Amino acid sequence: MNLWVYINLKESIxxxxxxxxxxxxxxxxxxxxLSPENFIGKIEPQEMEGLSDPVQAVRxxxxxxxxxxxxxxxxxxxxxxxxVIIVNDLxxxxxxxxxxxxxxxxxxxxxxxxxxxxxxxxxGNHRGHSEQENRELYTEEIAGRYVFINHDCTKDLVSMxxxxxxxxxxxxxxxxxxxxxxxxxxxxxHQIAGFSGGRKSIMPGVVSKELITLNHSRMxxxxxxxxxxQDNPVHHMMMEVAGRVGVDFILNAVTNSNREIVKVVAxxxxxxxxxxxxVSRKMNMVKLAEQADVVIASAGGYPKDINVYxxxxxxxxxxxxxxxGGTVILVAQCxxxxxxxxxxxxxxxxxxxxxxxxRFKAGFELGGHKAYAIAQVLKDKEVVMISDLPQKDVEQLFxxxxxxxxxxxxxxxxxxGENYRAYIIPEAGLVFPVxxxx
Length: 438
Prior knowledge:
By secondary structure, the protein is of the alpha/beta class. It has two domains: 4-43 and 288-434, 2-enoyl-CoA Hydratase, Chain A, domain 1, CATH 3.90.226; 54-95 and 112-131 and 142-283, 3-Layer(aba) Sandwich (Rossmann fold). 34% of the residues lie in helices and 24% in strands. The strands form six sheets. Strands 4-20-16-17-18-19 form a six-stranded parallel beta sheet, with helices on both faces. A six-stranded mixed beta sheet has the order 7-6-5-10-13-14, sandwiched between helices. Strands 1-15-21 form a three-stranded parallel beta sheet. Helix 1 runs parallel beside helix 3, helix 11 (341-349) packs across helix 13 and helix 12 (353-362) packs across helix 13 (368-378). It is globular. The termini are close together.
């Protein structure tokens, strides 16, 4: 798997007193202070430096596509009347300020006019963007120059036939009716699809709620796990859907924890994506020498902690580094609350985590799968949450309320003893700890 081994800090640096770390919390920073005696180490990706000229890197990727003719050659051959470019929504911070200008320039060189291009925001089952959010995400110039449409998984869909399992393929009409489809995105480890990016722009990005639900319902399959795609039914369904829709070209990036581009891939849907996956795997998957009593983890700040629905990803990752019976201290602002009505309903209607687990067994429901993922962590681990949520909401999630980081650490010391052992994870959504023996 080409995993790198996290090396603990040498004892010689432990004698310098209290250690201090900075966590992102929404759009702010908070400081974490920890005694050296409690500190095992900081779990981070095997960071690669950001490229010195990311725009040039995008140009070079477009000029040297993987498994595909150049984009301008495809456009010249197809002579498209309507081009759709699919972009990530705000829950996945993508460096579009570097990626989109070279992409649009290449299309312009092929004779594609501005009016022929429509951007579709791959919201999946998430909320749509405001005009201001589009300007912040895709730049003022691009958002003001082109048409942007939020995908809605419940309407404006057309049928593209049936999949091999018999389910109807309902797709955003703008995508289905386009003469040329280009997808853009970010490649990171993903909890059930193996890795994000590539085919994920189509499924769940621009398909019906029914198909999104069906795909997510396969999350309990043995192969549906982070870092795996070869025998993953979630991935295979995504690939079939993307193949049926027809993706002409992809442009994806791999970024480090500072959101800097470290690799750009472009070209044929599967081949280019796998090239990016190989980079992400080496950077983001971390093998541990031991599990800890306590893990102190940040979801990574805005927008990764915009709500509990998004912050759950960081929680599941962080929990891998904790012993059975251990504690995860999750730092996630969550200004938009639960973030999904079904997820909130499942949580509020449950009297215990077991109610959620039993409800999931009785029938899958999109949104409910997030409650299930949290309940899975809580089967043998405790979560102390530091957020802007009211205490009653934190406790309704079956978490322990933490007023602040000092309060949470004092609780950990009472529970595990003054000599508890802890990891720090500043960007838990970006790194997947691999437990010893795995």
